Amino acid sequence: MRLIVHSPVDEPAILLQRVFYGTGSDSNQIISRTEAALDPEKLADARRISATHLPWSEENPGWGFDGPLEQGAWITATVDLPFNDHLSNPFLHTYHPDHDNLDARFENELAQGAESYSVVREIGVLVDAPGTNFMGRISGGQTLIGDYRETFRIIGLPRAGGTNDTRTFEVRGVFRLDRISDIPILTDSL
C-alpha cells in the first residue's frame, strides 16, 4: 500500500491521494496537488504518484495529520467515506440495483446502512529513530520507517439511543517512506 505524505516545515503533515512532480510554469521543479500547476510543454517529463486506496477528488485537498512527520511522533489522519459517496465508497456500485443506495424505483436515496455504510479510516504512523546498523546510518533522512496502524469503522443503520450499528477492524504493520523530493511546499496549496 502506498502512502503519500507531504511534510511542510513547522506544520502538520498531510496525507495525499496523489501528487504531481515536474517543471512548473516558472521552469522550477515543483510538487503540486494538481496537474494544472505543471508546465504543459513539459508534461511528458512530469510524474503523477497516486495512492489508489484513498478517495479521489478533483481538488485533492488531502487529510491533515494531527502533527508533523518526525521521529518519535505518533500522528493520525482521519479519512471519511460517506455512505452516499459514489466516487469513493466501496459499498456502492452505481450500476448494480442492490448496491446503488436507491429505492426500488430508483427515485429516493436510502438511509445509511440500508445498502451502503459510512466508513471512517483512522490512519496512524509512528516514525522510528534511525537504526544504528549500516542502512540506518547511510539513509541520511531519505527513508523513514516505523509502525503503521489503521482502524476502520463501518457505520450502518441508526439504532435507538442515538447510536448506529458499527463494526471496527484494525490493521497493523510496518511502513517505509522514501523521500522523493526536498521541495518543502506544495505549489498549489489550498
Summarize the structure.
By secondary structure, this protein is an all-beta fold. It is 3% helix and 38% strand.
- Average pLDDT, rounded to a whole number, is 88
- Number of helices, where a helix is a run of at least 4 consecutive DSSP H or I residues: 1
Structural domain count: 1
Give the strand content: 35-45%
Order of helices and strands: EEEEEEEEHEE
Overall geometry? flat
The structural class is: mainly beta
* Side-by-side strand order of the widest sheet: 7-8-9-10
How much is the radius of gyration in Å? 20 Å
Distance between the termini: 26 Å
Query: What oligomeric state do these chains adopt?
Result: single chain
The low-confidence parts are none
| Main sheet characteristics | 4 strands, antiparallel
Bin the helical content: under 10%
List the SSEs and their pairings:
Blueprint lengths: L3 E3 L7 E3 L1 E6 L5 E4 L14 E4 L12 E2 L9 E8 L36 E10 L6 H5 L4 E17 L3 E16 L12
Structure description:
It is a single chain. With 190 residues, the protein is mainly β. It has one domain. Helix content is 3%, strand content 38%. The protein contains one helix and ten strands, in the order ββββββββαββ. The chain has one helix at residues 134-138, and strands at 4-6, 14-16, 18-23, 29-32, 47-50, 63-64, 74-81, 118-127, 143-159, 163-178. It has a four-stranded antiparallel sheet, with no helix packed on it. A three-stranded antiparallel sheet has the order 1-2-6, with no helix packed on it. Strands 4-3-5 form a three-stranded antiparallel sheet, with no helix packed on it. Strand 9 (143-159) and strand 10 (163-178) form a beta hairpin. It is flat.
